[in-house]
Amino acid sequence: MSEKIGFMQGRLSEIVDDKIQAFPWLEWENEFYLAQKINLGIMEWTLDQERLCENPLITEVGRSKIKKLCAQNRVIIQSLTGDCFMQAPFWKAKNRVKETLKEEFIRVCNACRCLNINLVIVPLVDNGRLENQNQQITLVEFLLEHQKFLQEKNIKILFESDFGPQELGRFIAQFPKENFGINYDIGNSAALGFDPSDEFLVYGDRVLNVHVKDRLLDGGTVALGQGNANFESVFFELAKIKYKGNYILQTARADDGKHASVLELYHSMTTRWLKNAKITFDVPIFNDN
């Protein structure tokens, strides 16, 4: 189970511009070495709109370096969080800007294919939030038009959303299971006050990636176990649906700058929740009647 636990790129680097998450330009190569040292074999790539075309994922030279670093440090990259799509959503743009952003979306998918990254996360939160029907139509139509392309590239688009359970269930039902799913963010759901059992009842079978994070109700990210996330309930629901995907530590940053140490702690905590959930789920429940 613990071999399915990974980390969000940047969590092993110094904080960039006071942001909890950003591509670590100065330290991205060293993160592979640090991940190997603390036995984290899965990294989720993060991509910003700023300097998008310079990101090593996008360039041929950069991808060659990424492949080499993965091999040297026994790290795999199976998913990408497209913060660039949230920062500059094509479904909110107009005219030529919209077309350029759509072209960039396709370019990112092509780059992911070159590295065998098959999960591309589209955050429909914050600036990427769907605010009206027209924006939703623009997004849905574009993605469905490119379904064949996604199939050929072996890419699955995962949505991270602030929709309530029923609304998200209706939204994801518009997309075929073969190439579309949900990235379940534990902390975001906790901040919105959602009940995990309600969420998984509606769309549990569409969850293909999990972000492990804790947040306060109506508040920001905090250390694991210090917020409103009900980890026992979430991991039980995941065990119940026999979830086989990754658990990506998208956790709070270390106050003392010891980012590797705090990730080791969070890895241990997540491993424990996973084991407890499996034990709980595997124990038969007897009815006295």
Q: CATH class, anyone?
A: Alpha Beta
As a percent range, the share of strand residues is 15-25%
CATH topology: TIM Barrel
**Continuous helix count:** 11
Order of helices and strands: EHEHEHHEHHEHEHHEEEHEH
Notes on the structure:
The structure is a single chain. This protein has 289 residues and is of the alpha/beta class. The protein has one domain: Alpha-Beta Barrel (TIM Barrel). The protein contains eleven helices and ten strands. An eight-stranded parallel beta barrel has the order 1-2-3-4-5-6-7-10. It has a two-stranded antiparallel sheet with strand order 8-9. Helix 1 runs parallel beside helix 2 and helix 7 packs parallel to helix 9.
Strand and helix map with partners:
Elements (H helix, E strand, L loop, with lengths): L4 E4 L19 H10 L4 E5 L13 H14 L2 E6 L1 H5 L7 H20 L4 E6 L8 H13 L1 H7 L2 E6 L3 H8 L7 E6 H6 L4 H8 L3 E6 L1 E2 L5 E2 L8 H10 L6 E3 L9 H24 L7
Parallel strand pairs: 1-2, 1-10, 2-3, 3-4, 4-5, 5-6, 6-7, 7-10
Antiparallel strand pairs: 8-9
